[in-house]
Amino acid sequence: MQQVNIGMIGGGTVGSGVVHHLQHNGTLMASRLGVGLKLAKVAVKAFDEPRPYDIPRALMTTDWKEVVHDPAIQVIVELVGGTGLAKDMVVTALKLGKPVITANKALLSAHGEELFNAAKAGGTNLYYEASVAGGIPIIKAIREAFVGNRFTHLYGIVNGTCNYILSRMKQEGADFADVLADAQKQGYAETPPDLDIDGFDAKHKTGILASLAHGFWVDPKRIYVEGIRHISKLDMQFAEQLGYTIKLLGIVKRAEGKRPKAENGSRIQVSVYPALIPNAHVLASVNGVFNAVFVRGDVVGDTLFYGRGAGKDATASAVLSDLADAALDLVHGSHGRVPPFVPHERAGTVVPIGEVVSRYYVRLSVIDRPGVIAKIAAILGAAKIGIASIIQPEGHEGGSVPLTLMIHDAPNATMQKALAKIARLPVVKAPPVMIRVESFA
Ligand code: HSE
Fold it and tell me: Which residues lie across from 359 on neighbouring strands?
């Protein structure tokens, strides 16, 4: 049986997971693939850094160049993370014509096109199943299984930390800060937590999915991002009363409205923000650290992918899948069979959030006095924004009371402008809270 020699850079959580599962399932994989997978070297930060699974000492080195430049090593797995040194590692390997497997969403988001070009120039391939939603095979699904579809809608719960925090806030009626602190204590959230809770990790992943689905590499600067820091237990409770759950969603949708004359490609919305989603929608039941990606194709219709989006085992599973593809491509000389990314829609555009049309949940803190609703309704009416419902829950005593409004479809810019006017009314006592509502139409 032919054998492919693998070199890995990064021996932390995911890296040691790959080592462990290759040791346990390597023979099974070889019998399925007809190719043996041999781990030849692992570059680590330090020999004795804490890791969930042991890595044999004989495989370890602290010099990544020793791995990449070893002529016997045919495939490189990059599990270092970040956009600095990791980029050098990936580009060096690709220039040497060695296929690279990466889980690095930040690197792909920032430098995707450059890396794919480097792979092409090196006559090799770049595999990145592990970069989005861990163990869920969503890259393969979009790129291969759904190749005959146009993608109209894609919604992802792609950050386990945020989903864990929001799930607990809902289940326990708890505040964001308390759940975050506990999640950090238990190791479910990183310290500092910013990359996750401010939506940047979800932005990287959503950008990768959008790029693949729509055929142009999405500039991360064009992706609108809102995290979950501002979600309060009060809004969770009101959402629940209205029949909704709040989830951090990565959203990729074909944009509505007319295409400006200067543009001739497809126009898409690519955003990450917390949204109220109907309890009856299947994504509302995705709880805890789990991820899910909902994909609507014009041929296949609605599909849903669910699983663990992070961690030593689920992410290792995605790396093993890429290892299998890389090994088969090497052995059969077929690296171009499934190119990593094909820019087939160069003229595509991401529409600015201001033009995106959505529904909204708005919570105001107002003085409980006659005429208040009339003033608010007048501003919304003048902006041609329709109110779907208004609730002023009873039992709130004090200087101000909450007033929640569900708002019909309106462009984000129009809504923001109207809210700014409402915020200036003397009867409004705190900055308005606005959360978009996603109905999956
Ligand atoms: N920190 C990510 C999450 C996992 O919470 O889902 C790695 O992308």
Answer: 437
